[in-house]
Amino acid sequence: MLKVSTISRSFGDRRVVDGVSFDVRPGRMTGFLGANGSGKTTTMRIILGVLEPHGGSVTWRGAPVTQSVRQRFGYMPEERGLYPKMKVAEQVTWLGQLHGLSHEKASANTALLLAQLELDDRAGDRLEALSLGNQQRVQVAAALVHDPDLLILDEPFSGLDPLAIDTVLGVLRERATAGVPVLFSSHQLAVVERLCDDLVIISEGVIKASGGREELRAQHGSARFELVVDSDAGWLRDHPGVRVVDLDGPRAVFDLVNGGRADQQVLAAALDRGGVRRFGPLLPTLDEIFKEVV
Amino acid sequence: MATSFTTSARLVAEREVRSFVRMKGTWVGLAVILVVLFASAVLPRVLSDDPDEVAAVGAAASRVLDGTGLDVREVGSVAAAERLVRDDKVEAAVVPGDPPSGVRVIALDDPPTDIVAALATAPPVDLLERSSVTSNERQLVIQVFAFMFLLFAAGGAAIAQSTVIEKQTRIVEILVSTIPIRALLTGKIVGHAVLTLAQVAVIAVAAPIALTVGGHRDLLSVVAPALGWFVPFMCLGFVLLASIWAVAGSLVSRQEDLGSSTGLVMLLILGPYFAVVFFAEDPTAMSVLSYVPFSAAVAMPVRLFAGEAHLWEPLVALGLLGGTLVLIVLLASRLYAGSLMQTGARVKLRNAWARQSASPSAQVRT
Fold first, then answer.
1. Is residue B160's pLDDT more than 70?
2. DSSP state letter for A6
3. N-terminal to C-terminal alpha carbon distance within chain A
4. Does the distance separating the beta carbons of A45 and B360 come in below 8 Å?
5. B24 touching A (Cβ < 8 Å)
6. Element (H or E) spanning A183, and its range?
7. Contact: A50, B173; criterion CB under 8 Å
8. B360 contacts A50? CB cut-off 8 A
9. Residue A37 sits at the chain B interface (C-beta within 8 Å)
10. Which of A2, A43, B66, B88 is deepest in the core (most CB within 10 A)?
11. What are A183-227's pLDDT values in tens digits?
12. pTM over the 0.90 mark
């Protein structure tokens, strides 16, 4: 497990990251959410040792992150970059060696990854000859070639078309399932909602919420319910203990008032009047949680 | 298994060498050097292949021309000789004249100095303090060494180039998170030193061939003894400048801006070059220059060659160079590490030194 503990970092007088703490658990995809300039990239750079923190610490499996530990991490920086004039397979293999693989192992891994990312026919091309989307896939391969113990990906899906997102996602999921903790940042809420198991939300350098996705949704859910019946649901307006938020023919959205527990009475009343098609608490979307906490 | 410092540096060096060897410019550059080398050795011989032809009139002319090695063409009259000169059939004509020489030289529009010199009877000269090396030979050695050093010191610019490419493409972030920055710097310097030495070797093989083809074997025997000292000075001098080149590359973020930071490095290379060339005849200046780390690589071997330096002197100069080298490399690796991750405007040296506490204007993006 990767443990980030109260790290801080300033640039000049501006505090960009302030007492940030969170965990990245094995076998989980952890989404790191925040607006542009909220401190995501700085935090990731500190984890990777590219930047020094001005306070706090990062530990991996209970021990401080040293150079040799870091060499086993996989990193995809936000600002993409590989050698433009180097050939794709050669470049990924070289990076694998730099991460401590033998040449044979590195080139075997490269071949496998390029096939998985549907790039095997471009292996001998110079990187600069590839489209931006394909260069991005090479970047993913570069982060994965050494079978990293931990994956840190800064905006891995930006700039990818939906099909490419699925391809890359498949590769990442496979690693997560194999027990590798994956931390990826994004400002695209819809993408994160679909992909992550855990969530860390940062705003202006401060962590606003973190935990399992479903836990967070439950935590941040108000006592709001949705009811869909066969006929018109207008009677709900007069039901005690509830406040109707939205009413549209057979569908109604309502809040429980004063922390009451009228939901079961509403269900019983609805069943008395006819069929119930849908009934249950309405969990907030990530979007709503994000707006609430930020 | 983690890669060690040396493995990381080796991988970086290998990549530098590979990508450099694949660049067309590398081969074009080397080819140009070789072509120039052969041309300057062979062309003068081809162009002035025949000895000058001279017309001679009368017995006195024939006598003075005897044994000068000039190609003599006997003609009957002064008028005939003049015609040959006018028709450009001969360089000049030697005709009967007044004592003491008894001859006169006729030429078209330029006094034929080489022919006149051949005719002159110089008195014998006894040197009281005979130098083993003539001034010409000395000048030649200076030119050769200074030019070689200039060539390869400037070749260090490739290090600045490759550093700025890594910054510009941002792959530097992956590199820095994977291997120590010092391993990156070491790999770069080692890689380019190997490339430079390989080029020196090619030239070292080609130069004797060119000189032999051009009939300058004697020059070869003049330069060769000085080479022994030139090599260690050149190697240390290269590393010294290479680390400075690396810093110059790390200070900017785009290739287009490279000129703004490499000016000073060019000054460090060109300054000593011109100093050595200009002060070649001034023993005091040369003594000083042979100890200054940036010019020692040229000045000290030249002084040794001319027999002006004691044997301990190059050792002291090498020691000074080595000491400066260690200092500069330490300094450079800190500046390099400090500026490598800063993007945006040109990094000020002060900020690079302050290491990672980037100022707001030159900070990494958050």
1. yes
2. E
3. 27
4. no
5. no
6. strand A182-186
7. yes
8. no
9. yes
10. A43
11. 999 877 877 888 888 989 998 989 988 888 888 887 777 778 889
12. no
Beta bridge partners of A246: A253
Decide if A39 contacts A204 (C-beta within 8 A).
Answer: yes
Judged by CB atoms closer than 8 Å, whether chains meet at B11 and A94 is answered as yes
User: What are the beta bridge partners of residue A76?
Assistant: A153
Task: Give me the sign of the Cα torsion angle B352, B356, B359, B362.
Answer: positive
- Residues of A with CB below 8 A from B174's CB? 75, 77, 81-82, 95, 142
Any idea what DSSP says for residue B97? -
Question: pLDDT tens digit string along B32-74?
Answer: 888 887 887 777 666 655 556 788 887 777 777 776 667 777 8
B residues 176-195 lying closer than 8 A (beta carbon) to A:
176-180
Mutation target to probe the B interface, by most B beta carbons within 10 A, among A58, A67, A153, A183 is: A67
Q: Is B1 on the interface with A (CB under 8 A)?
A: yes
Q: Which two tokens stand for residue B287?
A: 């003594």
Does the distance separating the beta carbons of A80 and B173 come in below 8 Å? no
Retrieve residue B169's tokens: 């493409």
Report d(CA B328, CA A22) in Å as an integer.
42
Other Cβ atoms within 10 Å of B312 Cβ, number: 8
Confidence of residue B366 (pLDDT cuts 50, 70, 90): very low
Look-up: residue for tokens 């890359």? A168
Long-range contact set of residues B358-366: C-beta below 8 Å, sequence gap at least 24: B358/A11, B358/A12, B359/A11, B359/A12, B360/A11, B360/A12, B360/A13, B360/A14, B363/A11, B363/A12, B364/A11, B364/A42, B364/A45, B364/A51, B365/A41, B365/A78, B365/A79, B366/A11, B366/A16, B366/A37, B366/A38, B366/A39, B366/A41, B366/A42
- Long-range contacts of the stretch B201-208 (C-beta < 8 A, 24+): B202/B30, B202/B34, B203/B33, B203/B34, B203/B37, B203/B148, B206/B34, B206/B37, B206/B38, B207/B37
**SS3 for A69?**
helix
Burial of B16 (0-12, 13-18, 19+ CB in 10 A): buried
